[in-house]
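Internal tracking record. Fields below are filled automatically when a chain is submitted to the structure queue. Please do not edit lines marked as system-generated. If the sequence contains nonstandard residues, flag them in the REMARKS field before resubmitting.
Queue: standard
Priority: normal
Entity type: single polypeptide chain
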Amino acid sequence: MNEPISVPEAPQKKIIDLLVIGAGPTGLACAIEAQKAGLRAVVVDKGCLCNSLFHYPAHMTFFTTSELLEIGGIPFPSTHAKPTRDEALEYYRLVAAYYKLEVLQYLRVERVTGADGAFTVHIHDRFGRQGTMEARKLAVATGYYDLPNYMSIPGENLSKVHHYYNDPHPCFESDVLVIGGKNSAAIAALELWRHGARVTLVHRDAELHQHVKYWIRPDIDNRIKNGEIKAYFHSRVVEITADAAVVETPEGRVTIKNDFVFAMTGYHPDFDFLQKLGVRFEGPDRLPAYNAETLESNVPGIYLAGVIVAGSRTNEIFIENGRFHGRQIAAALTLK
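SYSTEM-GENERATED OUTPUT FOLLOWS
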């Protein structure tokens, strides 16, 4: 049997005022605002600090400016008009260090027992060792990037199939299939093509999504128009094999040779975890029940922050607006 985790506790104040689940920018902002309000906040994450950002494409540039990514009132200097992934990771590390935030990495929350004012959070580490933490309030800021939308087709579990795009170099002089029609698919297709891959794009709709960024859309459209990237619209992949993929098109099924598949089919919040906490969902978009002013969910003492407040509408909440959720939660806690 594995030994229990030794969870550090502050002397004379063992119970955490606010335990934040998720150490992304929104989770860090929640901890900072709670700390400013005189509360003890601890952040726990199953991965590293800003785990989702860390798994973004290595050469990614944000769509927004650095000032819109700032948290805690700390300026975000950038040498570019739009900051890079590496600059963002460095910025959030420095912010966490500046505020001396208690961030416990590589600890997964299994379940939560107890009630408002006296929650017991059951956790385990990478080696299966278990432990508990005691908290008066919880803020869930788990994002959505860790859970891909699977296609549930034969061959999706092959090692050549990836639901995250990182770097184009391994695909040089290879046949690559990109599935999807939003920003992530367009960026992956363009980068792969520019780094020597032979790229085919498959999308279920008649054209690329309307939310593809204005400076990306003409580029990908022109590559498709010129035949540099082959595209199948109104089409879907129905099977993936070791050497190819079967695509259902308006003209019938075609078999496309490929060495790699990037299924950029989107991601979703951890609805199962929220449901285990007792959070109620409403409507087809699975919008969680919460107070719009305080961000407290239907479960007393459990607050929601970041993209998870939008349910399946993951294109409505970003770092730019989710970073302010910490202020709302801290204000609600100080009132109570």
